[in-house]
Specification:
By secondary structure, this protein is α+β, with helices and mostly antiparallel strands. The protein has two domains: about 160 residues, Pleckstrin-homology domain (PH domain)/Phosphotyrosine-binding domain (PTB) (PH-domain like); about 230 residues, 6 Propeller (Neuraminidase). Helices cover about 25% and strands about 30% of the residues. It has five helices and 31 strands. The strands form seven sheets. It has a seven-stranded antiparallel β-sheet with strand order 4-3-2-1-7-6-5. Strands 8-9-10-11 form a four-stranded antiparallel β-sheet, with no helix packed on it. Strands 12-13-14-15 form a four-stranded antiparallel β-sheet, with no helix packed on it. Helix 4 runs antiparallel to helix 5. The protein is elongated and about 100 Å long.
């Protein structure tokens, strides 16, 4: 039973279930042909048996032209060139047509509309027409199947006509062009849905000794002075960081501790020298999975790291060697942004909607000394997602749709749904500032907890609702907010008043260029989606019309249809 809880168990079971469903449909589809084979074998028929779909001239006259209307049948070819068409009607009853090759007329119609009206072989005998198409597989290309069918018949029928058009040559070219437009529109919609520049948007903020500010995107590291003048833009790839920075913190010697998201380890980086090296305690294997953040405790020469998607808080030595797991999935669920402040380790326990604190002065501490909710009432039954060992896959904090217990209730002064604490940072005058996010960790409220011991009910800084902060840097004179999905850094006062954008004209130009590209791609994606919808609507309307026109064309060339009253 333990295997059922393995992360790969459910995908494997789903694949097995889909294969069983597919096998069941294949069995049901081929069952009539097995019945026909047994019937023919019992009747002593000899010769090659070819499973086909059968349509009578009455079927075509009534417009019943699709594969779903075709009757299961078997075409039996004998050594003398004669043909038997045995059609399964109801139950196990069969209807047999004997078609002498010498007195039978053959016409072969090819078509691109295989799903609605496949390539057909028309047999005309004694004033009556019979339409056959190859049908011997659950999936398959109609044109390729029809070609194989034609080759099989050509081996036993002398002077079998080659495949010819059905009078819709220009329509087929129109269909080809239409298909190219549809495929192009789909690719345009999918391609433009990926917003360019997302790897250039600032997402992680850090400050060096109350001076220079660093803002990291997935691709670039932006270096500013304290006033916001862009000093340089550093390519993270040049320093061996390929998938962005998850966290960074300045060291006393001017270097930085940096979380390499792609490698899943912590590195020391000298941005001036463009060099990054893993901490000595890390081997070549990744330690952290997906998103992780850390904080440094220089007094005790320790690093504390939150391995978010594994739901654990680790204690490491100064070189990155793992000492122990302080807390795990039994008490944590998506922990984020650990912080050392005034001898205490504080962490955002996101899915429990709380902040937890440990006293670093206590040896081998393991029990929190404080707990503060970022909501008015938390869940009484937090069901944390299972750990899925797949790196570089985003996980968002959210409640399971069918989880038991009552859901979290936000504070009365919070916006609806803002219940997930994701970022914490020290305030300018003590206390903590917290980003309490909403669905998919977006549009966070900014909360302020007072000095230790923190108040049970935080104050909310009322931000403009258009601001969507993802990272937070509190400075002496202002607060910097990196926005989620928007290339900008916003400055606000400690009271929440917007002071403008951080950065100079050079940085503003870079961000404007990214925003223009994102707007262009967004418009292309929108129009491409509209185009796909229009083309699909045309497809739904046009294909039955084209199929009906094709049937009328075939009827007009068939003398047998004159015997069928309109």
């Amino acid at each position: 039973m333990e295997l059922l809880w393995h992360p790969w168990a459910r995908p494997i079971l789903l694949v097995v279930l889909l294969l069983l469903v597919f096998a069941w449909f294949a069995y049901r589809r081929m069952r009539p042909y097995r019945l026909l084979r047994r019937t023919l074998s019992a009747a002593g028929h000899r010769g090659q048996q070819i499973p086909v779909g059968y349509l009578s001239q009455e079927d075509l006259a009534a417009g019943h032209v699709g594969r779903q209307f075709a009757k299961p049948a078997m075409l039996v070819t004998g050594n003398n060139g004669d043909l038997d068409v045995v059609v399964l009607t109801r139950g196990s009853a069969c209807l047999r047509y004997r078609l002498p090759s010498a007195d039978t007329g053959f016409d072969w119609f090819r078509s691109m509309l295989g799903g609605l009206l496949p390539p057909l072989l028309r047999l005309r005998f004694d004033g009556r027409s019979h339409y056959l198409f190859k049908r011997n597989s659950v999936l398959g290309n109609p044109a390729r199947t029809a070609g194989k069918f034609h080759a099989e018949l050509a081996a036993v029928i002398p002077d079998l006509p080659a495949a010819r058009g059905d009078g819709f040559r220009y329509m087929e070219w129109a269909i080809r062009i239409y298909a190219l437009f549809l495929i192009g529109a789909v690719f345009a919609a999918l391609g433009a849905s990926w917003s360019p520049g997302t790897d250039e948007e600032p997402m992680v903020l850090a400050q060096q000794d109350e001076g220079d500010v660093y803002a990291a995107s997935v691709r670039w590291l932006y270096h500013f002075d304290a006033a916001g003048r862009l000093l340089e833009r550093i390519d993270l790839h040049s320093m061996g960081i390929g998938d962005g920075i998850s966290d960074m913190e300045s060291l006393d010697d001017g270097r930085f501790l940096v979380g390499d998201s792609g490698a899943g380890i912590i590195k020391t980086c000298d941005f001036a020298a463009r060099q990054c090296q893993p901490l000595a305690g890390f081997s070549n294997d990744r330690v952290f999975l997906r998103s992780f953040q850390f904080t440094r405790d220089p007094q005790h020469a320790r690093i504390y790291a939150a391995d978010s998607s594994r739901h654990r808080l680790l204690e490491l030595d100064a070189e990155g060697g793992v000492i122990r797991e302080i807390a795990g999935p039994d008490s944590l669920c998506f922990p984020n942004d650990p912080l050392v402040v005034e001898g205490r380790l504080v962490i955002a326990n996101t899915n429990h909607h709380q902040l937890l604190a440990w006293d670093l002065t206590r040896p081998e501490f393991s029990v929190p000394v404080g707990e503060w909710l970022t909501v008015q009432q938390g869940r009484n039954d937090v069901q944390c997602p299972e750990i899925f060992e797949a790196p570089n896959t985003e996980y968002f904090a959210r409640e399971r749709p069918h989880a038991g217990g009552s859901r979290a209730v936000a504070f009365s002064n919070a916006r609806p749904g803002q219940i997930w604490p994701i970022v914490i940072t020290p305030g300018p005058n003590g206390g903590l500032w917290v980003l309490n996010a909403g669905h998919n960790l977006q549009h966070a409220d900014l909360l302020r907890f007072g000095e230790w011991p923190f108040a049970s009910r935080p104050r909310r800084v009322y931000l403009d609702e258009a601001i969507d902060p993802i990272s937070l840097l509190v400075r002496k004179g202002d607060v910097l907010l990196a926005e989620n999905g928007k290339p900008s850094i916003i400055r606000i006062s400690h009271a929440g008043k917007v002071l403008g954008e951080f950065g100079d004209k050079k940085f503003a130009g870079l961000m404007a260029s990214i925003a223009d590209r994102q707007q262009l791609y967004g418009q292309v994606a929108l129009y491409a989606k509209y185009l796909v919808g229009v083309l699909l609507l045309i497809l739904v309307i046009a294909l039955p019309v084209v199929t009906a026109l094709r049937v009328k064309y075939i009827q007009a060339q068939d003398p047998s249809f004159t015997r069928i009253p309109d």
